[in-house]
Amino acid sequence: MNLNHNVKASVVILNWNGKRLLEQFLPIVIKHTQSDISKVIVSDNGSTDDSVRFMKENYPEIQLVTLDKNYGFAEGYNKTLQQVNSEYVVLLNSDVETTEGWLQNLITYMDNHPEVAAVQPKILSYKEKYKFEYAGASGGFIDRYGYPFCRGRILDKVENDKGQYDNEIPVFWATGACLCIRLKDYFEMGGLDGSFFAHMEEIDLCWRLNARGRKVMCIPSSIVYHVGGASLSKDNPKKMYLNFRNNLLMLYKNLPNRSLPGIFLVRFVFDVLAYFHLIFKGEFKNAYAIIEAYRDFFNLFNSYKQKRIDNLKKTTQKSIATQYKRSILLKFYTGKKLFSSIIWK
User: Fold this and answer.
1) Fewest CB atoms less than 10 Å from the CB: which of 2, 116, 117, 206?
2) Mean pLDDT, residues 127-150
3) Arithmetic mean of pLDDT, 265-272
4) How many CB atoms are closer than 10 A to CB 295?
5) Where does the Glycosyltransferase 2-like domain lie (predicted)?
């Protein structure tokens, strides 16, 4: 089944047991999205609540994809987007509140910049609308050792939005909470890595885009509000596990041979320090999640060798300008806690 013939953009919401979120946010998304050139698709990722029945009874006009089980964020989108036929797709979390003109601003920019593969809007907190949102803020970056941060959020320091990051800039990654990407680029890159299940998969995808000469941008004239943590809270040990394991997989898959050993050595030292920091705080389950992440990373190591080889063969860029070449952890713990305080050169 092919979805959405003759539309420019498909906004795809991947739902898992999120009936409450659909009730709250879907009407707003539809109001700001449905038009002659853009449509909303809801893909149900094997929910066990009443999400499917709710959609069929209340939104029969909205295209509904039903997957047979929970494939996770990454593979759930891969399977859904195989059925989509539009120039652009937007991966939109079910806990996002859109605003007037949010989609048109993204599409207009991409129409005018064919060298750009993916964009994200400015993402603010739904609960504190004057603040940036943790997961995406005003564009994502990573440091030399793979630690992600945002324009507007470094580690746990989230800035207030005062218009200080309202310029359009290239970024290393666009958040999966609201990621607009050309469908052609999505499939040419191989889509999201299904082995990740959830977390870090959009950073991995954007790394591949950047490494092959395609651009990723933040367009702050487009604004959405994100609740965050709807599936897994920030302090959930499973979230800790997925973030650490997937980050290691991402580094192994994307780092060039010349820098891989040194970066992994430093990264291991940082992660050991993180482990003991969590132990000191009494967060034993989160600390153990780091051990589990390393264990499963090494279990997957051999199966990822071919992925790494295939990926690096397609890399055309020796260096990515939007990757911070130093340690964001060292900057943060020496007092540089605002994005504007980082010196890139």
Assistant:
1) 2
2) 97
3) 97
4) 12
5) 10-132
- Number of other CB atoms surrounding residue 237 within 10 Å: 17
Name every residue whose Cβ is closer than 8 Å to that of residue 9 and which is 6 or more positions away in sequence.
37, 38, 39, 86, 87, 88, 89, 90, 103, 107, 180
Q: Are 174 and 206 in contact (CB under 8 A)?
A: yes
Give the whole-angstrom CA distance, residue 325 versus residue 345: 8
pTM over 0.90: yes
Q: Quick one: average pLDDT of 30-48?
A: 94
Burial (CB count <10 Å: 0-12, 13-18, 19+), residue 223:
buried
Could you state, in order of their start, the residue ranges of all structural domains in the chain?
3-226, 237-341
Mind listing the pLDDT tens digit for each residue in 235-261? 789 999 999 999 999 999 999 999 999
Alpha-carbon distance of 324 to 196, in angstroms, equals 23
Q: Does domain 3-226 have CATH number 3.90.550.10?
A: yes
d(Cα 197, Cα 77) in Å, to the nearest integer? 10
What are the helix and strand counts (H, E) for the chain? 10, 13
